[in-house]
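User: My notes are a mess, but here's the protein and thiamine diphosphate's SMILES. Can you give me a structure?
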Amino acid sequence: MATIKRTKFKLAPEQLLEMFYWLKLARAFDERLSVLVRQGRVRSGVYTGIGQEAIIVGTGFGLRREDYICPLHRDLGAFLLKGVEPRAMMAQMFGKETGLSKGRDSALHSGVPDLGIFGSTSMLGSNLPVAAGLALTFKMEQADHIVVAYFGEGASNVGDFHEALNLAGVQRLPVIFVCENNQYAYSVPVEKSMAIDDVADRAEGYGFPGVAINGNDVLAVYQATQGAVARARGGQGPTLIECKTYRWHGHSEHDKAFYRSDEELAMWKSRDPIPTFTTYLKGRQVLTDDKIAEIEATVKATIDDAVEFAAASPDPRPEEAVTDLYA
Ligand SMILES: Cc1ncc(C[n+]2csc(CCOP(=O)(O)OP(=O)(O)O)c2C)c(N)n1
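Assistant: No problem, the inputs look usable. Here's the predicted complex:
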């Protein structure tokens, strides 16, 4: 059985601050969307990843432009980290012409090939065979690019997940499967949908390593990812990284999440990835209160600007509804 090496990494203070910025930006983007939904200003369904930000930042940090990510409904922060401008991302959520898909989808299925982002469909798990296919292309082209594909623990119960992992294992494809195990698939708790504790264990059946880690610790996620990246780029094949986490909001903004207790939510909020990382950075003298205030001001200005841009952008024109279609 292949194993994943504990990769040593050294991040410069500027890189650690950059990670902190991305965590803050992802959180603020989702928090603002949540407010905008309540104000009736967003046309799309909104599925926030509040509480899960360490996963997208820890896995996406340092990827190359040529590497691909295959994000899902809860991963808007991954789009930002891969290079999508907050303005375009917000316009996408407003369904405007200036959004990624020019207002032509329900907002959560867009991709940006130039930035290495593959759009998903609504069918859970369907992004995983696509990720394997992309990775197969990279292998055939002998490029050392990799693919990072995200999915929930719920999606790990559908056939596409198993087919994708099987192909990736057999072909030793340069793909990293990142499970965001946030404990619920809509209202279904993980113990009612899986007879095992760790999604990570499923990798062994397909001949490659799986690790279960604290998904609220951005550096633990980064470290595990770096090991998986080294395996993928080095031709050793796929890795499954299961990140244990929790989503603070309901499945979507219209779900009040009555199926879980206040105590459970409070327990997970006490493991908020951002204060944990803040404490670490302060301990390492990388972050000060002044720097935090500066970053928070930048993040707020960025989001304000994105909302203003999206609100002022034109609606899609009806005559364009049938352009950019492929038969
Ligand atoms: C194949 C399929 N079955 C059911 C659904 C309906 N559905 C949408 S999201 C969701 C829960 C997803 O849970 P999980 O995969 O754990 O991801 P999470 O939303 O928790 O991040 C379900 C059941 C779907 N979109 N596709």
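The beta strands are 68-70, 147-152, 175-181, 184-185, 188-189, 210-214, 239-244.
User: Great, I'll file this with my notes.
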